[in-house]
């Protein structure tokens, strides 16, 4: 795993909010190794969000799955076993 992916993995596992850690950690452990560059860029952008905003984004999407797209859709599918 290259340095960028290692940093992303670390930032996925070590969040300030346990709920966000739970959503991201297993996803990152499983999916980072074979994500496309576009998906990595999108995921990296998500990781830069503060935990409260990111958590609220997940809640909003869970309440309206039609809004899910890209990496967010993959994270939701991973965590709800819709893969």
TrEMBL record:
<dbReference type="InterPro" id="IPR005631">
    <property type="entry name" value="SDH"/>
</dbReference>
<protein>
    <recommendedName>
        <fullName>FAD assembly factor SdhE</fullName>
    </recommendedName>
</protein>
<keyword id="KW-0143">Chaperone</keyword>
<comment type="similarity">
    <text>Belongs to the SdhE FAD assembly factor family.</text>
</comment>
<dbReference type="InterPro" id="IPR036714">
    <property type="entry name" value="SDH_sf"/>
</dbReference>
<dbReference type="Pfam" id="PF03937">
    <property type="entry name" value="Sdh5"/>
</dbReference>
